[in-house]
Structure formats: C-alpha cells, structure tokens
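This section describes the prediction task in plain terms. A model, or a person checking by hand, is given the sequence of a single protein chain and must write out its three-dimensional structure as a string of tokens. No templates, partner chains or ligands are provided. The sample shown here is typical of the held-out split.
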Amino acid sequence: MLTRFRRIAGAFTVVRWAALAFVLLLVVLSVLAPIVVPVDPLAQDVANRLLPPGAPGHLLGTDEYGRDVLARILNGARVELLIAFGASAVAAVLGSLLGLVGGYFGGVAEFLTMRLVSDVLLAFPPVILALLIVTIYGPGEWTLIAVMGILFAPGFARIVYGQTLSVKRLEYVDAAKAFGARTSTALFRVVLPNVTAPIIVQFSLVMASAILLESGLSYLGLGVVAPAPSWGGMVASGQRYMGNDPSTILVPSIVVVFTILSFGLLADALRDLLDPRARKGSHA
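The expected answer:
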C-alpha cells in the first residue's frame, strides 16, 4: 500500500494535481449545472444582453441574446464531455480490436487492419475528413461521436498493435495456448489486460483532442446544433462583440484551453503512474 502511494505521489506533481482537480470540478459542475445555476441556458432576455461579468444574477455576464454565460458554459461542458467521452470510447474499442487482431495474427490480418484501414485513415487530415463527413451527414452529437471515434481509432490501433507484438511472445501467452486456451480467450483475457496501460493514457489524450476538434467544428457551425450551448459556438458568437465585451469570447476560450491542458497533464501523469520506466526516463 505504501509503495502504491509513493508511485502516485511520484506521478502527480502539483500542476498535475491541479489539472485533476479542475477536471473533477468541471465534471461535477456540469452534472449539477441545473442546481448550481438554476437558469435556463436557452432563455433569452434582450433587456439584459451583453452584461459584463459580475452583473447582479449573472456571475459571468450574458451574451448577445441575454442568455446567462455561466449556465451555457456548464451545460455546454456536459455536452462537450459526453461527446468527447463517447468518441474516445468508440475509438478505443475499434482501435484496440484492430491492433489486437493485426498484432496477434500478423500476415493478412495485419495488412487488412493496420495497412488497409489504419494507415488509410491516417493519410487524411482529421479536420478535413471531419468537415467532409459532418457536411454530408449533418451536424449533431451522434454524428460527432461517430466521426471522431473513427478518426481517432488508428491512434489506439497503432499503440495496441505494437504492445501486442511484444506481449504475444511472452511465456504466459505460450502457457495459455499450451493449456488449450481458445484464440478469443488468449486475445481478450491474456493479451488485452496486459496492454491496457497505454490504452488508458491514449484515452486521456484523445479526450483532449476530441474536445478541441468538437469546439472547432462547433465554431464553424458544424458541431452541436444551435441554440444548444457549446463552447465553440460561444466563441463564434462572442467574436462579433469582442470590441464591446471581450468576456463573451475570452470566457469560453479560457475554459477550452484549461480543459484541453488538464487532460494533457492527466495523460502525462497516467503514463508515469502506469509505466515506471517512462517516469524514470522523464526525470533522467
């Protein structure tokens, strides 16, 4: 137990603890948004439009339609996190399956999973491909989850493929085969549990990338459908009034930056925690 606490203390610096606290606070506030800010994020009040931060009843002010900015930030956080988590989960499942099959069987399976599927997807710029697909099928939460899940799957596939190539040569995998374990058992109960550490780290990184990509698509009007709150949409609408009220664009922009940075720092901490060799190398 003491050794485990020492590993956690070694992996989490003050900045990383702050990043973890920020992510947890954001999750809690997004879930409890109707209680924390009992204001309809879609309710318009043109008489109180573009109020500055600190205005009575509006901690972060209001936007060009008089909608409460804090309510839209927190409700938008719930949408952002759900989309990012859904896309990351889809990418993790698809990519891990491709990497496992390609790395374990090799040959034709490797060509089909890693060369024909993974490398082809990596050949296209993610933003351009996302724009193309969303333009064809239309914006929306489920479209974003599906598109980003497919776009980020090759990253998981490459990581799991490399780990599987190493793990499948180890003695306990040979022992499982010698005791008559079926191929599916060897894949999902012997190999997969031993390649989960890099999957967890990649999951955190993909969360950050998915939030950034979703915010960019929403900024262009191809993400979350207005008037539903989204951080990218708030940045897009706020830029028109930046001269009169800079907070309309600064507040959602700062939240996006801190969220992405926090998930990146968490990925570094998880890497050091789950892979002691990486921690030693980073401190060398």
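For orientation: Residues 69-105 form the longest helix (37 residues).
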